[in-house]
User: What shape does this take?
Amino acid sequence: MSVDVLLGLQWGDEGKGKVVDVLTPAYDVVARFQGGPNAGHTIEFGGKKFVLHTIPSGIFNPDCINLIGNGVIIDPAILQKEIVNLESSGVTVTKHLYVSRKAHLILPTHRLIDAASEASKGLQKIGSTLKGIGPTYTDKTARNGIRVGDVSSPDFLDKYNTLKNRHLQIVSQYGFDYSTHLIDGSDFESYEKKWFASLELLKRLNHVDSEYFINELLQQGKKVLAEGAQGSLLDVDFGSYPFVTSSNTTIAGVCSGLGIAPSKIGKVYGIFKAYCTRVGSGPFPTELTDADGENMRKTGNEFGSTTGRPRRCGWIDLPALQYAIMLNGVTDLIMMKADVLDGFENIKAAVAYHFGGKEITYIPFDAEDGKLKPVYQEIKGWNCKVTELKEKDALPLDLENYIRFIERNTNTPVTIVSTGPDRTQIVYR
Ligand code: GDP
Ligand code: IMO
Ligand code: MG
Assistant: This one.
């Protein structure tokens, strides 16, 4: 059996959680392969709303194995909160949740370094979620990290203290006074206590050598869906560096973050919004700072699932979408939040950029903020409510035309369209 992959093609928050949940009944396993609690994946059904940060979005189906792969980084305090929230709502979690022994841990001091680093950058700050993502991946590649499998080892505390002391030195080199800094509402000492307490739950979870685990499941004929976090334009290699996250959010991350071979990859679902959003700093050529952008933010409830920050909004960017499709080998496109454009008379799509006196359709190396001026094509809007529509033949002709326009520009079929946040608001084409 092969591994199908679902990943974001823009700057994250495309609606990955919703679609993974919708597709889960067709899979035996859902696996996260990169990122950490910087992710916020929203799932809505039966009038309830859940936001997952570390746990895969297949968790609501009790028959589905949910795996946190080696490429993911885990803050045990955040994971514990997620598990407690879900279980108090009646969702079974720990029975069908598996965690890679090789997944790295986010320490409380990683979060201090993140805050210190951002504070030192001033106006050039990344706009990080401050979940300790950059510092934890830095320790992983610098070979200093602590992994899930280390938690039960007798020298765990020594390893922790060695790393903590090194981190506190870094924090002091930044000149960062952490005595007044809050981590998720707690001072450092209180957070550290909570963090240590949460290790008890982490120890009781199912720990696996996830690369063997997943390959054995594949050999048994099980169907696996890999769930991406963030989006391709935040990839550490291919995103708008340095305004990116610290992992490979693109297809290569699936192989390194789960231990599966490239030849095992099957379908690649690329998910995008009918427009664009970005939270945090960095270039965003089609950003709208006018009433249209405000309308998208209000109608689409564009506020970060992890940080609550308002998301920047703008028109769809086709050269950027083509780039993400190329990087990932997308086989199926999924268009989200079509309903957010219901009230627009006309819709714009960037089909090229003006850059350095030329018209280009690629993303240049030095595409800094404000340098790429979008060349727009205008498309007629559908001007009607689509939130109740369930059948492809019921989609308004002007929405169908917008979808076909995107298909022509990307040479990739749009197989699913989402028309609202709920699990049931989905149209298969
Ligand atoms: P993810 O990080 O990719 O899983 O996406 P987020 O959960 O951060 O953000 C997507 C937001 O859009 C969430 O609030 C979802 O409930 C919501 N959402 C998902 N699909 C749709 C849709 O088709 N229409 C509308 N209006 N909202 C949607
Ligand atoms: P999901 O999985 C949207 C952004 C941050 C910041 C940059 C670096 O929900 O789509 P980091 O915390 O990784 O150091 O932040 O990346 N970012 C996201 N934006 N959705 C996400 O995840 C994101 N995860 C990180 O806002 O600009
Ligand atoms: Mg999100």
